[in-house]
């Protein structure tokens, strides 16, 4: 919502958070609180096969729909995406598909600077398939599972609001509504099996994140933990960006937003300020 003196373009950038593989939107609780306290509307999505959507099979089209739905829930005005790992690859692919719209003003992509079109992802997918098959066999022998291709009926999972925390008013005195996200325990209670890894990597293996970076004509901030193995092509991604920045957070690994939340939040604040200024 904007005040009568404030146009949608003047409103603070709204933020869509996109989680990584085998987790859920709950991993962003710290960051959602942080950006809301600064006056931004924010929502953390659950991708197919994760969290509240754990009974859906993962597809990239389904992931795009999740982002489309999230954007539709937010106030008019500029939008930024913040994605980790699978969420970062998904965000870059969504931006390349959509093009640099008036609403999308920037992406912070964390833990996703290894091009999934290369051999490492295909090898990891094959390993994951072996783990999933072994786990499935073990569950079947103990009578705990149906065949992965047979999906159970989708359950109705009520959304849960975070405890209310007053938000600082946006410039002009407008109030930003609170948007629901998944409860914190979702990531542990409904942690997806390894079956989702093979699905996700199959959809990623034919896509080039480098090509998506080139196609995204918006500011891109790449944020990696210094100990993250996915850093191996960060310089290639930076060079491919039309307008790119790279931040490496010392001491952190792949799950950089949870391993170094204070440092990550400082970088996030800088990135959103950069996106706002350029928008």
From TrEMBL:
Keywords: Hydrolase. This is Alpha/beta fold hydrolase. The keyword Oxidoreductase does not apply. GO terms for molecular function: hydrolase activity. It comes from Promicromonospora alba. Pfam families: Abhydrolase_6. The keyword Ligase does not apply. It comes from the Bacteria. Residues 15-266 form the AB hydrolase-1 domain.
């Amino acid at each position: 919502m904007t005040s009568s003196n404030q146009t949608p373009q003047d409103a603070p950038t709204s933020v869509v958070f996109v989680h990584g593989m085998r987790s859920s939107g709950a991993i962003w609780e710290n960051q959602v609180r942080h950006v809301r306290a600064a006056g931004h509307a924010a929502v953390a999505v659950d991708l197919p096969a994760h969290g509240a959507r754990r009974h859906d099979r993962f597809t990239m089209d389904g992931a795009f729909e999740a982002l489309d739905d999230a954007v539709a829930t937010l106030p008019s005005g500029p939008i930024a995406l913040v994605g980790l790992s699978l969420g970062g690859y998904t965000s870059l692919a969504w931006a390349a598909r959509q093009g640099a719209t008036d609403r999308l003003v920037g992406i912070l992509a964390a833990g996703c600077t290894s091009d999934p079109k290369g051999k490492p992802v295909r090898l990891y997918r094959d390993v994951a398939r072996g783990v999933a098959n072994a786990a499935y066999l073990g569950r079947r022998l103990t009578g705990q599972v149906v065949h992965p291709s047979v999906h159970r009926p989708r359950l109705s999972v009520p959304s849960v609001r975070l405890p209310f925390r007053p938000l600082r008013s946006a410039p002009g005195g407008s109030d930003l509504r609170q948007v629901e996200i998944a409860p914190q325990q979702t990531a542990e209670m409904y942690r997806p099996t390894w079956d989702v890894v093979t699905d996700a990597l199959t959809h990623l293996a034919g896509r080039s994140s480098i090509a998506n970076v080139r196609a995204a004509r918006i500011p891109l901030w790449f944020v990696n933990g210094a100990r993250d193995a996915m850093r191996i092509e960060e310089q290639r991604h930076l060079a491919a960006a039309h307008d790119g920045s790279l931040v490496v957070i010392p001491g952190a690994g792949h799950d950089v937003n949870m391993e170094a939340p204070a440092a990550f939040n400082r970088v996030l604040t800088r990135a959103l300020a950069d996106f706002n200024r350029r928008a």
